[in-house]
Amino acid sequence: MTASLKRTIGEGAAWISTGNALLKILGILYSILLLSQLSVYEYGVVELLLSIPPLLGFLSLAGLENVLVADMSNAKGKCQTEKVRYILSSYFSIRFLLACIGTFMLFFAADVIARFYNESVVLMIQLLSITFVIGSVRSVFLIVFNVNYDFHLVALYRFAEELIRFLIILTAFVWFTVNPLAVIIAYVFTDIVTVSIFIPAFYASKKRLLGHVWFSEGFLHPLYILKNHGKWSIFQTYLGLFGQNIRPWIIKTLLGTQAVGIFALAIGMYKHTVSLFPLAKIVAPIIPRFLEKPQQLYKLVNGTIKYQMFILIVVSISVSFVMLLLVTYLFPDYIKAYPLYLAMLVSVIPASFSSIFETVFHGLRAQKNLFFVGVLRLVVILLLLPVSLWVFGLYGVAVELLITGAVYTYERYKKLKHLLPGYQFRLADLIHFSELDKMLLQRIQKTGQKVFGVGSK
Questions:
Q1: Which of 30, 211, 306, 341 is least surrounded by Cβ atoms within 10 Å, i.e. has the fewest?
Q2: CA 153 to CA 76: how far, in whole Å?
Q3: Nearest Cα to 147, choosing from 88, 224, 93, 195?
C-alpha cells in the first residue's frame, strides 16, 4: 500500500468518524424537535409511512452498493476503466428502471389506500413515491464518491442530508406546525435538495474516475450486476429490511397506531445504543488478512465477540440513564417507551455474536448462506411477534427481539462452523487474553480517540 493511499484512507477514516459524530448530534436534535411536537399517535403514523419504501426495498436493490464499490474499486486498482464504466452503467440502468416502477406503484396505490385513510395520508404516500427516483441518483453519487476515495464528499453528503432535514423541520416549527405531513415533506425534499447541491461535486468526481466518456454498453445489460454474489447480497439485505419494517405494521394491526409510536421510540433508542461503538466495522478490514490462518482467525473472532459484548453492556448501562432523563423531561408523553427500551437491551447479548458472525460471512463472501439464515429470521418474526404481542402486550416486541436474535445467532454459528471446520466459541474465551486481544484493544483505543476525541495521541 503506497504512502499516498494510506494517507487517503487515514484522512477518509477521520472524515467518516467526524461526520458520524456530527450526524448523531443532528439526529438527536431532530428527534427532540420531532417528539416534542408530535403526539404519540402522529409519531406512529409517521413511522408507518416511512416504513413503506424499505418494505419495497427490492426495487432499490438494497445491499448492492457495497458489492459494487468493492468490484469497481478492484477494477479501478487494475486500471480497468472500461470495466468500471460498464459496471456503473449496468447498475444505473436497472436501478433507475426499478425506481420508476416503484414510483408508479406507490403513487397509484395511494388511490386504493384512500378508501381507508384520509386525504393527507394519501398525499404523504404519493410524496414518498418520489424517493425511489431520487434515491437511484443518490446511490450513484455515493458509489462514485466511495470508489474515487472521496471520503470527504461522502461525509459532507450525509451531513448535508441531516442538516437540511433538520432545517426544514425547524422552519416548520417556527413558521408553521410540525405534523406528519411536514415530516414527510422534509424527508422527500431532503433528498431532492441534497442531490441538487452535490451535482457539481459528482460531476468532478465522476470525470476523474471515468474520464470524458461516462457510460458504456453496460446500459444494455442491466442484469449483469446481479450475477454471482451480488444478487445474494440484495436478497439478504432486503430480508433484513423487510423484517425490521414489518414489525410496526404487525403492532398496528394488533395494538393500534399509538403503540407503534411507543415502539418506534424504544427501538430507535435501542439502535442508537447498539450503534455507538460497532466493533464489527473496526475488524471488518482485518478479517480478510487472517482467512489463510484459521487458528488466528478463530481467536480474532472470539476476541472481538468478547469485547463487543463487554462494550455493549457498559454502553447500555451508561446510556440508559441518559435516555431516562431525556424521556422523562423532554418527552413525558412517551414515558412508556423507556421500560420497553430497557427490556430490549437484553438483546445486546445475542447481537454481540451475530454482528461479528455477519462480518466474517462477508469476509468469506458467503452472502448466500446469510440469505438462507435471514429467511429463518423473517419466519421467526412473522410467527413469533403476533403471539408475543397477544401474550405480553407491547413488551412482546422485546421478547420477540431476544428470541429472534438468539435463533439467528445460533444458526449463524452452526453455518460458520460448517464453513470454518474447527471453529468453536467457548465460555473460556470470555476470560482468555492473547496477542490478538492486545491488537484488538489497540485498535479499539485508536477508534475511540477518533470517534470521541479523547486519549493520548
A1: 211
A2: 19
A3: 88
The pTM is what?
A: 0.77
Instruction: For residue 356, give the C-alpha cell.
Output: 461479528
**All three cell numbers of 309:** 459484548
Q: Is 35 in contact with 43 (CB distance < 8 Å)?
A: yes
Q: Tell me the C-alpha to C-alpha distance, in Å, between residue 207 and each of 95, 286, 313, 365.
A: 21, 32, 47, 31
Distance CA 121, CA 257 (A): 14
What is the rounded distance in angstroms from the CA atom of residue 300 to the CA atom of residue 282? 12
Question: Do 260 and 126 contact (CB within 8 A), yes or no?
Answer: no
Quote the CA–CA distance of 364 and 291 in Å, as a whole number: 8
Burial class of residue 220, CB neighbours in 10 A (0-12, 13-18, 19+): exposed
Rounded to whole angstroms, the Cα distance separating 437 from 443 reads 10
Tell me: the pLDDT tens digits for 53-67? 888 877 777 777 777
What is the C-alpha separation between 198 and 160, in angstroms, rounded?
10
Is 211 exposed, middle or buried (CB count within 10 Å of its CB: 0-12, 13-18, 19+)?
exposed
Q: Choose among 237, 245, 186, 242: nearest CA to 48.
A: 245
- If you ran DSSP here, which 8-state letter would residue 38 be given? S
- Return the C-alpha cell found at 317: 448501562
Q: CA-CA distance, 69 to 71, in Å (whole number)?
A: 6
